[in-house]
Design goal:
The complex is a heterodimer of chains A (about 650) and B (about 270).
Chain A (H helix, E strand, L loop, with lengths): L11 H11 L4 E7 L2 E6 H17 L7 E5 L4 H12 L3 E5 L5 H11 L3 E4 L2 H11 L7 E4 L13 E3 H10 L1 H13 L6 E7 L7 E6 H14 L7 E3 L7 H14 L2 E4 L6 H8 L3 E3 L2 H16 L3 H23 L5 H22 L6 E4 L6 H9 L4 E7 L4 E5 L12 E2 L3 E5 L4 E6 L5 E2 L3 H7 L6 E9 L6 E6 L4 E2 L5 E2 L1 H9 L4 E7 L6 E7 L1 H10 L7 H5 L2 H19 L9 E6 L19 H7 L1 H8 L4 E9 L5 E12 L5 H6 L1
Helix pairs in contact in A: 1-2, 1-9, 2-3, 2-6, 2-7, 4-5, 8-9, 12-13, 12-14
Chain B lengths: L8 E2 L5 E2 L2 E12 L2 E12 L3 E5 L6 H8 L7 E6 L2 E2 L5 H6 L2 E4 L11 H7 L9 H6 L3 H19 L15 H14 L4 E5 L7 H18 L2 E5 L3 H7 L2 E6 L2 E6 L1 H5 L2 H8 L5
Parallel strand pairs in B: 5-10, 5-11, 8-9, 9-10
Antiparallel strand pairs in B: 1-2, 3-4, 3-6, 6-7, 11-12
Helix pairs in contact in B: 3-6, 5-6
Classes of the chains: A alpha/beta (about 650), B alpha/beta (about 270).
Chain lengths: ~650, ~270
């Protein structure tokens, strides 16, 4: 490696070169392949990236080019991003599970000439895009498998490109050096397309300043050190992965491990034992569901031990974690619990060494949140956005609660507008939406304040931010009372049996809901209760399942009725959908957020039935399979009423 | 019927395939009075995907057993790499570069996927039982070398997640894949697949088809397969042999077979009036 840096750390390539000098022989990347963890030191990483950058330079990638990167989390894909940055070009990571049509929009919008992909599947999709979008000059692939017979006119392998780079090194290394030196703090670092719950995806332009300042502040907040271990498994196109796996990793100099495949993630987590971990609530939810299902099947002794341990943990676990006062005998019992229950459980989940864990993206159920904390795992919440380079608020150690998202992150200012919408300003605030000045102006004002689109308030006394709902979803019901669908949906989703819920009620006299059951949880319940079923659809329509869901909703209504502001949001009628809401059908975003408007349009017949008093409805829905083919499913859905608590009752109680 | 015998054959996607790896000449196989195969001749060229199709009881599996050397035909001869093949024991067949999978899965159910695939390397191990017992020197080195080959195959067939899972706990589709992995572990030059897609759903069939094509293109392995599903065969193979009641009724590229009247009759039935 010949590149060095002594200047200011103004970009990711600069951080890489510093790490190669400072942490040279410490591991930077690990990937499990062929059953063994392969690792690369910072020095080796810098050499690999340098060779790739030279190769890219040699095929004509230059300053200001947009280079799309599509693949699962692998060192080669991360290296590609940094190599592109060395040339002051802009990496644009795409969601690898997007279908070709979704990719076409982004590739055309950013005018990408070069695309770096992981494997044959992605090559095929980009080739399909090429039929309609011109301008893609070359595809570079990492895994050659299945590509041998392809026409290589516009196709090159990653390793060949590196070879080419090493070949021209003597001639061009000084040019590369100049390129890196010329990078400024305000050059674009990366462009990320937001999945967008409404409309077309927008390209969020983040500068080196945004990324480096954010990485620095957040690393210091949690005292991240070079010895940290993380596992990179979240989509590379998501801002969080960029900050955690590149920004913070390069700033702090810690090692990022990539799983062998998506299916082996749990085993790989266990082998690595991350100290710094991030997961969206649904990952924690599904893990907890798995644990509970397995405990139901465990022997009597084990189950009783587990129940005893969890009861104790719920009582004292979080307090011990927060360093509060707990009696000697409880501490002793908790210690025993740790030896027999919590320790082994955390080990199974791969959380034995977790020092800091975050969840964000959606509200997390209090029971789920407390479960992990009571085990002694330092799970915290943060609130962030792509436009903020992730961090807006986060919870400091010792001030962790499930109903807030924490205090403003270092360097972030917050304000709440009169309509309840949350605004922020920080060094991480994005530059602009690419080729979209109107939306930029709508979101970010001249003074740099950015609208989050979320309604919330700052809690008096603690200064913690609480989020109620998306600002545009918060509305009024026909009688003028407040309608906050997400608030209700989150409460419903806290039941393991309910995977997804969509609540309607804006401008109507009462609320109603679509429910998606969780196949794993309800399936296990069905097995234990001798309910026979042959398909998702049949299980979803089973009278006993409907009864189960009905009970959950009634309980939720009771809890909603306690809230003065939102008691009008109780769910009066519901139906269980015959299919799972799916990103392939456009009903969810790629990060699995509900796309309310699309669902409203697509299932308008069902919504009508919810409000016209009918007790069942025949419907037909178009579905898209994973390979892009289409089909349709027909079903008759039963609509049920739920008990609600009226206002008079509440006053009496 | 155009019967390609010698020389280069150009496939539909423009690859030219080498000379004959194996030739069947006038094979007749009888079990007592039953004539399973009657005067069949065809060849398998180096690097091609050769399919043998036919209705139930046409003699496909018998044919595969003749190719693998398990059955010895009463008449006719089998040429392997241009010379007459002697009668061989199964393990000798394996050392000569022929590996196969079975119609009814034949794996070691109690062993892990990894161990099952490792057994495919058995013919490549030369260390004696004693050195294997004390686990020193050659035995250890050999195990590591073989494990490397096996891990590449596990990666290739995307079965990393079940590496340590006992085979008995796997669903049918995955067992088939493990069996393919074991056959590949022997690094065969000729791979025989006996109904690799029987009993699979559409998705599993598509996966398996992709793996078969990838094996062919990545490792250059010659593949001979038996299959029921016509559409799969037509997409997958370079050339097809069609059998019916122990006789060969067609031989050629998928397009030729599709338009062959005898084949259409055999599959769709023909009125006998």
């Amino acid at each position: 490696m010949e590149l060095t840096t002594s200047g200011d750390l103004v970009s990711i390539p600069h951080l890489l070169l510093r790490n190669a000098q400072k942490f040279g022989d410490r591991p930077a990347y690990r990937e499990k392949e062929f059953g063994i963890w392969q690792s690369w030191t910072w020095l080796e990483t810098a050499e690999e990236i340098e060779a790739l950058a030279l190769g890219l330079m040699d095929i004509g990638v230059k300053k200001g080019d947009y280079v799309a990167i599509i693949g699962r989390n692998r060192p080669s894909m991360y290296w590609s991003m940094v190599a592109v940055q060395m040339l002051n070009a802009v990496p644009v990571p795409l969601y690898q599970d997007s279908v070709a049509a979704e990719m076409a929009y982004v590739l055309e919008h950013c005018g990408s000439k070069f695309v770096i992909v992981g494997d044959q599947e992605q090559v095929d999709k980009v080739r399909e895009v090429q039929e309609t979008v011109s301008g893609i000059e070359r595809i570079i692939y990492f895994d050659p498998r299945g590509l041998r017979k392809y026409d290589h006119k516009n196709l090159s392998s990653f390793k060949d490109l590196q070879k080419q780079g090493r070949f021209v090194k003597d001639d061009r290394i000084s040019e590369l050096k100049k390129q890196i030196e010329a990078i400024t703090y305000d050059d674009t670092c990366i462009m990320l397309y937001t999945s967008g719950t409404t409309g077309r995806p927008k390209g969020v332009v983040l500068s080196n300043r945004n990324i480096i300042e954010t990485s620095k502040n957040s690393s210091e907040f949690d005292k991240l050190a070079p010895g940290e271990e993380t596992v990179a498994y979240l989509p590379m196109a998501w801002v969080g992965d960029y900050i955690f796996s590149i920004g913070q990793a390069y700033w702090s100099g810690f090692c990022v491990s990539c799983p062998e495949s998506a299916e082996t993630l749990n085993m790989d987590l266990r082998e690595i034992g991350p100290t710094y971990y991030f997961a969206p609530p649904r990952v924690f939810e599904s893990q907890l569901t798995t644990v509970m299902i397995r405990m139901e099947d465990a022997g009597n002794f084990k189950r009783r031990l587990f129940d005893w341990g969890m009861k104790l943990a719920q009582r004292v676990g979080s307090d011990i974690l927060d360093g509060k006062e707990v009696g000697f005998f409880d501490r002793l019992k908790y210690f025993l619990g740790n030896v027999f229950v919590y320790g082994p459980l955390k080990n199974t989940l791969g959380f034995s060494r977790v020092r800091v864990a975050y969840t964000a993206g959606e509200a997390i159920g209090p029971e789920i949140f407390d479960f992990y904390r009571s085990l002694g795992m330092n799970l915290k919440q943060l609130y962030g956005q792509t436009e903020a380079s992730v961090f807006i608020t986060q919870q400091p150690d010792g001030e962790v609660r499930s109903d807030t998202v924490g205090v403003p992150s270092p360097g972030v200012e917050l304000k709440i507008e009169s309509n309840g919408e949350v605004y922020y300003r920080s060094a991480g605030v994005f530059v602009e939406y690419f080729k979209n000045p109107e939306n930029t102006a709508d979101t970010k004002d001249k003074e740099g304040w950015v609208a989050t689109g979320d309604a919330g308030f700052i809690e008096e006394g603690t200064g913690h931010l609480r989020i109620i709902d998306r600002a545009k979803d918060v509305g009024k019901m026909a009688d003028g009372s407040m309608f906050a669908p997400k608030y209700v949906e989150n409460k419903l989703k806290f039941y393991p049996n309910i995977l997804e819920a969509v609540v309607f009620g804006k401008d109507r006299s009462n609320c109603s809901a679509f429910i998606n059951i969780d196949l794993a949880a309800v399936g296990s319940w069905a097995e234990r209760n001798n309910v026979a079923y042959s398909s998702y659809q049949e299980l979803a329509g089973h009278p006993q399942v409907l009864k189960l869901i009905q009970e959950h909703i009634a309980e939720t209504n009771l809890s909603i009725s306690q809230d003065k502001m939102l008691s009008g949001c109780q769910v009066h009628r519901f139906l269980v959908l015959h299919k799972e809401l799916d990103a392939d059908d456009g009903e969810l975003t790629r990060t699995r957020k509900v796309r309310r408007r699309i669902i409203e349009e697509k299932f308008s017949d069902l919504i009508q039935a919810l409000y016209n008093g009918s007790s069942e409805i025949l419907t037909e829905t178009e579905v898209t399979y994973e390979d892009g083919r289409r089909g349709s499913i027909k079903a008759t859905l039963e609509i049920r009423d739920v008990d609600v608590v009226d206002k008079v009752d509440r006053k009496a109680a | 019927m155009n019967n390609v015998s010698q020389g280069d054959f150009v496939t539909s996607d423009g690859r030219s395939i080498g000379s004959a790896l194996m030739e069947m000449q006038n094979i007749t196989l009888k079990f007592g009075g039953v004539v399973a195969l009657e005067n069949i001749s065809f060849d398998i060229l180096e690097g091609e995907v050769r399919a043998i199709i036919g209705p139930n009881g046409a003699g496909k599996s018998s044919m595969l057993n003749v190719i693998s050397g398990f059955y010895v035909p009463q008449e006719g001869q089998v040429l392997y790499r241009g010379s007459l093949r002697p009668t061989m024991k199964p393990f000798q067949v394996a050392t000569h570069g022929i590996a196969r999978t079975f119609q009814n899965i034949a794996l070691f159910e109690g062993m892990s996927v990894l161990d099952n695939v490792m057994t495919g390397r058995i013919t490549k191990m030369k260390s004696g039982i004693f050195s294997q017992m004390i686990w020193k020197g050659r035995a250890e080195r050999e195990e590591n070398e073989n494990r490397e080959v096996v891990e590449k195959i596990i990666d290739f067939l995307e079965i990393q997640a079940i590496r340590k899972t006992p085979v008995s706990r796997l669903p049918y589709g995955l067992k088939k894949r493990v069996e393919l992995a074991r056959a590949l572990a022997a690094e065969p030059s000729l791979l025989l697949l006996d109904e690799p897609m029987a009993g699979m759903n559409v998705e599993e069939k598509e996966d398996m088809s992709r793996f078969i094509l990838d094996v062919n293109s990545e490792f250059g392995t010659t593949i001979a397969l038996i299959e029921h599903d016509m559409s799969v065969v037509m997409d997958l193979s370079d050339r097809v042999v069609v059998m019916d009641y122990g006789k060969k009724i067609g031989d050629g590229t998928p397009d030729e077979i599709r338009n062959n009247q005898a084949v259409i009759d055999a599959y769709l039935g023909v009125s006998h009036d």
